[in-house]
Amino acid sequence: MAYDYQPFPYVPPPGLRGPEPRHPVAIVGAGPIGLALAIDLAQRGVAAVVLDDNNVVSVGSRAICWAKRTLEIFDRLGVGERMLNKGITWKVGRNFHGADEVYSFDLLPEDGHKYPAFINLQQYYVEEYLIERAQELGIDLRFKNRVVGHEDKGDHVVLTVETPDGSYTLEAAWLCACDGAKSPTRDRMGLPFEGQTFEEHFLIVDVEMAESPFGSDVPERWFWFHPPFHPGQSALLHAQPDNIYRIDLQLGPETDAATEAAEEKVLPRIRAVVGDRPFRLDWMSVYKFRCARLERFVHGRVLFVGDSAHVVSPFGARGGNGGIQDVDNLGWKLAAVLGGAAGPDLLDSYDTERVHAADENILNSTRATNFMTPKSPIEALFREEVLRLSHRHSFARRLVNSGRLSLPAVLPGYDKGDAPVAPGTAMPDAPLSDGWLIERVQGEFTLVGFGDIALPEVPGVRRLGIGQTGAPYPCCTSPGDVAQARYGAGWAYLFRPDGHVQAAFRDPTAELVAAEVARAFGPNAEVTP
Amino acid sequence: MTDQTDRLGARGDDVYAALMAAHEGLTEAESHSLNARLVLMLANRVGDADAVIALIRDAADMTGKDA
Questions:
Q1: Closest to A125 in 3D by CA, of A175, A90, A74
Q2: Is B6–A378 a contact, with Cβ atoms under 8 angstroms apart?
Q3: Which of A121, A397, A485, A509 is 20 to 30 A from residue A175's alpha carbon, by CA?
Q4: Could you tell me if A400 and A103 are in contact, meaning their C-beta atoms sit under 8 angstroms apart?
Q5: pTM of the predicted model as reported, rounded to 2 decimal places
Q6: Which residues lie below 8 Å from residue A381, measured CB to CB, with a gap of 6+?
Q7: Is B8–A377 a contact, with Cβ atoms under 8 angstroms apart?
Q8: CA–CA distance, A499 with A478 (Å, rounded to integer)
Q9: A12-41: per-residue pLDDT in tens?
């Protein structure tokens, strides 16, 4: 059944009648990134105002693949389980060369994680759930409020906003530009957004079908090089909720987007994929893409988050997932700066850490796109030989690149050390007697002792003992001692509020732990919990 | 033919990208020369003549076949 787009009500904002008190944060854009950031801040007691020029959720499924790390962040924001329940869980991908399967991969071969490697869920559902969560938290969401100007005053930003009832100005201590790949905020500031543009056109189509094209009930990710039904190109097939299937077809560089998007051109292409199964065309789009980023994500009082800061090709699902990880990195830092626990230079670490992650995402998605769209005869030749070899040799299967799927970046600037989970890493989940490790750790600085190790009391740091008894702080067990196996028995870990390992200790004294908290807040931090 | 198992892991993508970058902007003749040089260098680096000869046969065996 087609998604029922419900317009959100426009309410004349108070700023039309008179000056509003200065807002701590103005978020431009009510897509997944802006909404997630508003929710993260609200959960930390920071009331952001969200301004969006539109009044409906994403038209078309757009971003559909949500990675495990994103779901864990959504869990912290109170929407993870709802997304998991509605989404299509998959973990197996298959690559075909012609009609032959040459390679398959299982993205999450081990048990003991709350969330799977991936779910597929249309962006309109993700936005719907985030908006409902934002409303539950009383977040000031302003639809049909188009930001047409802004001025950075050094200690705040003045925004000019247009509404159906006229325009008004609004002040905010920080402006978060979550206004997407074509960011008007970025354009207004004249910031260069440089990178590689790919000349290939792709046709992306959602079809509704009662019968699964996978030939079984298990949804997977299927990718073809030279599919028999679409000679000389590539194709990608994904399952979405509501019996909707995503078909992505490479069209080559010499095509006209408008001609290709015509129904009489699209329908035969889809029939070639799905055979004589009856289907309904739900949504389609013809696009080219690029990999680019801003040089810096922090510009005075203006912070760029998500696609406004960096864009990638869709192969690898690193766009939306990268943006949600930006939010996870920024939320606690911005709240700390606003609350006075840290100076504004804590935001420099948002810039450093997320530029590093964006580069990793751009590198991976550029390589995948290059492999799919060889740009010279010699590249095409190597690609063909890799594919031919992949039928017989497993080393070549490893080189077949249909997208290296989104994984969280390891934070730069952390020493690896010798702990089983290296500092800078996003936390691996583990089952606990009363839930999951991610639920007990994310959101605040948390010191966790795995097995027999005593935890000191440190102001502003929550404690949790796993497999301990008689300690003067909360303790639980991990079924099968899975948590101890993953983190190492006898180790203590300090986690940042974004669930990344700040430090691992054999002998966690109050001084050592406090020093690590201070380090996470940056050199000029005044840590007053 | 024996299966050549993977020995590069995730770094395989780095090697492939470096190879493509080395060919960028070359003429077809220059690319042929580069490939020939590289094959000879890699053969020497493998250092086991019998293994290299077996690989040459395996690779040559695929000439003109579908896969």
A1: A74
A2: no
A3: A121
A4: yes
A5: 0.95
A6: none
A7: no
A8: 18
A9: 999 999 999 999 999 999 999 999 999 999
